[in-house]
Design goal:
Strand order of the largest sheet: 1-2
Structural class: mainly alpha
Largest sheet: 2 strands, antiparallel
Strand content: 5-15%
Number of domains: 2
Length: about 120
């Protein structure tokens, strides 16, 4: 098929369909090559910085030491710190239901925390 190439000076593969449709061998545009190389470099950097690759004994830890579980625990600790003053009042053995209802701030906290649950 490529022996009958009517366009020898053109960069084509020599494959023709319907007598005029031909397959060219054009290089991809420069912007496409830049994007392609940037994408695999980004993946490589990401795999080094963050836990990303499963291994036989767990996973790669990454150089930044970041994990989603660690971020969750930090957020949970900050929420517990904010809630602590109300939780101390509620967990006090001398606190009764009537005392919680009488205190507007404590009552609002218990109602809102019940909605979360």
């Amino acid at each position: 098929m490529s022996e009958n190439n009517p366009f020898p000076n053109e960069s084509n593969t020599g494959h023709f369909w319907d007598d005029s449709l031909r397959e060219l061998t054009n290089d991809p545009p420069g912007w496409w090559r830049i994007g392609f190389h940037a994408s695999w470099l980004w993946c490589l950097v990401y795999f080094v910085l963050y836990p990303a690759i499963p291994t036989l004994d767990g996973y790669s830890k990454g150089t930044m030491g970041w994990t989603a579980v660690g971020e969750y625990k930090e957020d949970l600790a900050s929420i517990d710190k904010v809630r602590q003053k109300w939780e101390d009042k509620i967990n006090n053995p001398n606190t009764t239901s009537a005392m919680i209802i009488a205190d507007d701030e404590l009552r609002n906290y218990t109602v809102r925390s019940a909605k979360v649950l």
